[in-house]
Amino acid sequence: MQSVSSDGLAGSPHARFFNVPAAAFVLHVMLNGTQDLVIGGIPAPYPMPNYANVLNDVPQIVDVLTFVRAGWNNSVPAVGAADVAKSRKAAQAARKAVLSAKALAFSKQASSQQ
Fold this sequence. Notes:
Elements: H1 13-16, H2 24-32, E1 38-39, E2 42-43, H3 57-70, H4 81-112
Antiparallel strand pairs: 1-2
Helix pairs in contact: 2-4
């Protein structure tokens, strides 16, 4: 476990979000939340809500995530509007796939009960 220095989150991989260039991880969390977050086998008491329908891409999500990632003297690239759009598109595709799988499972279950 990494300890946090006296400078708070300066240099922390948690603040840099593992220095993912396109900020994919932090974008996913911002847009989709962490409803099922489990840390060390213990469910998080305060999962992060999703902000996909609350904040707009530019400037809100771009500005917030750029600030959070670059804060505490961490040198990481800014989050761009294209990064947010790509993450939104991936999240929508994943939700569609999950809904399709659930619909298919429901359909199969209904057919087997007839």
